[in-house]
Amino acid sequence: MSGSLALTSQSGSEEMKLNLEMQISTIQAGLYAVSYGSIKSPLNIQEAAFVANSLELVSPAQLGFLRTQEGKGAFNEFSRTSADVFYDDRASQKVVIVPNRVISRLIGSNNLVAAHAQNKEYIISKPQRELVYGVVDEMLIKGIAFVAEHGESVVSTSNFGQTELAYNLFSDERLGIKAQDYGDWLKTKEGRKEAIFLFSDKDYSKSKKGPYLNRLRLFGHVRDFDAGSLGLNLDFPCGSFGARFDEIAEVGAKNNIKP
């Protein structure tokens, strides 16, 4: 499976054709047939490539689940995820994790990449702020978004199911993914007693001239496990996984075979 996309240059006067082809593999993971691919490129190109190949940028919960299911270590590499990290500049100074690229879709991943290319955080523009504040507040009230601490937090892998941050990041009720299953795998298979979560510290956030957005990424065994949004690297050709989860029963029905 492959795809291509025409993107307009910043001048708007010409188009460049990007090759978005990637190798798509499929594994059985629990009750799902999971199609996945990976690509090393700036964030906006990754997202376009996954869309072209009928995949979605992997969520933290999906990536944790895939690591526990696939025995060859294919998913242990660094990966950006679909979780937005919103640094709220209002009085509460919260770090808010918003799933499924909700804020990125409002402001455009191209803007994140362009800001990082200038070695800057993407400060959400004043005309966009009230909309973004409203969306963030509504998602917090509904329990869709959740709050993390500034700076470094250390969580025992034995407590992934009981610690709010780890539970919210690595659980997905729709897919039946449990955070503690990932914590247990990290402890027993990877020998990790703790996981580190890293976000910008409060002084750094206060130094910015408005609310800003970043993207959560996960490291695997290539270094100490950590998750967070530090770094202005969304314009760099770093890796990400895209995935699509199809229930085995549905796949079997489409192909007229028994699950």
Question: Can you characterise this structure?
Answer:
The protein is α+β, with helices and mostly antiparallel strands and 259 residues long. It has one domain. Strands 6, 7, 8, 9, 10, 11, 12 and 13 form an 8-stranded mixed sheet that branches. It has a 4-stranded antiparallel sheet with strand order 3-4-14-5. A two-stranded antiparallel ribbon has the order 1-2.
Summarize the helices and strands and which ones pair or pack.
Elements: E1 4-8, E2 15-19, E3 25-29, E4 32-41, H1 43-52, E5 56-57, H2 60-69, E6 79-87, E7 95-98, H3 102-107, H4 109-117, E8 122-123, H5 126-141, E9 146-148, E10 151-156, H6 164-170, H7 179-188, E11 194-199, H8 202-207, E12 212-218, E13 226-228, E14 238-247, H9 248-254
Parallel strand pairs: 11-13
Antiparallel strand pairs: 1-2, 3-4, 4-14, 5-14, 6-7, 6-12, 7-9, 8-12, 10-11, 12-13
Helix pairs in contact: 2-7
Condensed summary:
The chain has 259 residues and is α+β, with helices and mostly antiparallel strands. The chain has helices at 43-52, 60-69, 102-107, 109-117, 126-141, 164-170, 179-188, 202-207, 248-254; strands at residues 4-8, 15-19, 25-29, 32-41, 56-57, 79-87, 95-98, 122-123, 146-148, 151-156, 194-199, 212-218, 226-228, 238-247. It has one domain (4-254).
